[in-house]
Amino acid sequence: MSTRELFPYLRVRNASEAIQFYQQVFGAVEDFRLAEPNGRIGHAELKFGSFTLMVSDEYPEYGIYGPEKFGGTGSAVHLHVDDVDAVTRRAVEAGAKLLMPPTDQFYGERASKVRDPFGHEWLLGSPIEEVSHDEMQRRFTAMFESEPKQ
């Protein structure tokens, strides 16, 4: 078996508004949409550069819910952008909640974290240095060794 592609698939309470948010904040381009006559979106595909993100409305009758149903999310989308500070600012201005301001990280990125108005978390990052896996592990270990013991 070989895997050819991987597509994150976000379920949200209002897919139409989520798509508008992702277009406004992240520059996503809607590629395809399947909508019911009442407007509920069964499937939409958004392009983030050459990558595809799939989005749909909730379908409670099939047990499909967005993170708001559960009071949080167990996953995040990590999006690399040219200017993490500008994208973070744009996200917050568009209604996202700032969870972590842009900060230089040990793994070689300037990164932030926001929760979009639909409950999904986005890790936004811009590269600031090349860090080898070994150096990243060294820094990660050092970070935990310097924390006070409980």
Low-confidence stretches: none
**H-E order:** EHEEEEHEEEH
Averaging pLDDT over every residue, what do you get? 94
Annotated CATH homologous superfamily: 2,3-Dihydroxybiphenyl 1,2-Dioxygenase, domain 1
Cα-to-Cα separation, first versus last residue:
46 Å
| Number of distinct helices | 3
CATH architecture: Roll
CATH topology: 2,3-Dihydroxybiphenyl 1,2-Dioxygenase, domain 1
Q: Order the strands across the largest sheet as they lie in space.
A: 1-4-3-2
The fraction of residues in strands falls at: 35-45%
How many domains? The number is 1
Number of strands: 8
Descriptive report:
By secondary structure, this protein is an alpha/beta fold. It has one domain (9-145): 2,3-Dihydroxybiphenyl 1,2-Dioxygenase, domain 1, CATH 3.10.180. The protein has three helices and eight strands. The chain has helices at residues 15-26, 84-93, 133-145; strands at residues 9-12, 29-35, 41-48, 51-57, 76-80, 97-104, 109-115, 121-127. The strands form two sheets. A four-stranded mixed beta sheet has the order 1-4-3-2, with helices on one face. The longest helix has 13 residues, at 133-145. It is elongated, with a radius of gyration of 18 Å. The mean pLDDT is 94.
